[in-house]
Design brief:
mainly alpha
C-alpha cells in the first residue's frame, strides 16, 4: 500500500507540504528529508548510502577516464602513426648502413696505408697522392688484402721512379776490387815466367823475394 492511500489525500498533502518546507532550508539542500515505504525495501542506511555514493563517484571517474582515452584514440591519425613508424625504420636502416660503410671505408684506408708502408715512397706528399689514387682504383678488398695491388704499384713505379727509393739488389752490393795502378804492368802467367820477371826487375837486390 502506498503512503497516499494509507494517509488519505488531505493528510498526505499536509505531510508533503511540511517536508517541502523543511527541505527548502539551506542546511537541507544537500541532505533532504525523504519518506519511503520500508516494506518495499526502498530504504538504504547511511553507511550503505555513503559507500554507494563513493563507488558511484569512482566508477564515474573511471568511465570519464576511459571515455577520454577512447576519444584520444579516435582523434589519432592512425595512418600518420604508421607512416611515422615506417620513417623511423627507414632512418634506422639508412643510419646503420651509413655507419657500416664508414667502418668499411676506414678499414680499407688503414689497410692501404699499411700496404704503402712497404713501398718506400720518398716524400709524405707523394705518399698522400699515391694513397688517394690507390683507393680510387676501387680494387677488390678481401681478408685485408687488395686484389691487383702489386701490379698497380709496379706500373706506378715505372711511371714515377723518382718518387721511390732505389731497391737494393738481392745479391748484395757489388764488391769493387782495387788494384795498384802502374803503367805498363806486366802480369806473368806461369811460374817460370814469374821467376824470370822478378830476376829481371830486382836483379840481386837482397830485399826482394826469392
Amino acid at each position: 500500500m502506498e503512503l497516499r492511500e494509507a494517509l488519505g489525500d488531505e493528510l498526505y498533502s499536509q505531510v508533503e507540504a511540511k517536508l517541502t518546507e523543511i527541505n527548502g532550508a539551506d542546511n537541507r539542500k544537500d541532505n533532504p528529508v525523504r519518506y519511503v515505504d520500508l516494506s518495499e525495501g526502498g530504504y538504504v542506511g547511511k553507511e550503505n548510502y555513503t559507500r554507494l555514493q563513493t563507488e558511484s563517484a569512482g566508477y564515474k571517474k573511471q568511465l570519464d577516464d576511459a571515455n577520454g582515452i577512447i576519444k584520444s584514440y579516435k582523434d589519432m591519425d592512425i595512418d600518420g602513426i604508421k607512416q611515422s613508424a615506417k620513417d623511423w625504420e627507414t632512418k634506422y636502416t639508412e643510419d646503420t648502413k651509413k655507419l657500416q660503410d664508414q667502418l668499411a671505408s676506414q678499414e680499407r684506408t688503414f689497410a692501404a696505408e699499411r700496404y704503402l708502408d712497404s713501398q718506400k715512397i720518398k716524400s709524405p706528399l707523394s705518399r698522400k697522392t699515391i694513397l688517394n689514387e690507390f683507393l680510387a682504383q676501387n680494387m677488390e678488398f678481401k681478408d685485408g688484402k687488395f686484389s691487383g695491388a702489386d701490379d698497380y704499384m709496379k706500373k706506378i713505379r715505372e711511371q714515377y721512379p723518382d718518387e721511390f727509393e732505389a731497391e737494393e739488389s738481392s745479391s748484395g752490393p757489388e764488391k769493387k776490387i782495387f788494384t795498384r795502378a802502374t803503367s805498363h804492368t806486366y802480369k806473368p802467367t806461369t811460374r817460370s815466367e814469374e821467376e824470370a820477371y822478378l830476376k829481371k826487375k830486382y836483379g840481386n837486390n837482397k830485399y826482394s823475394k826469392q
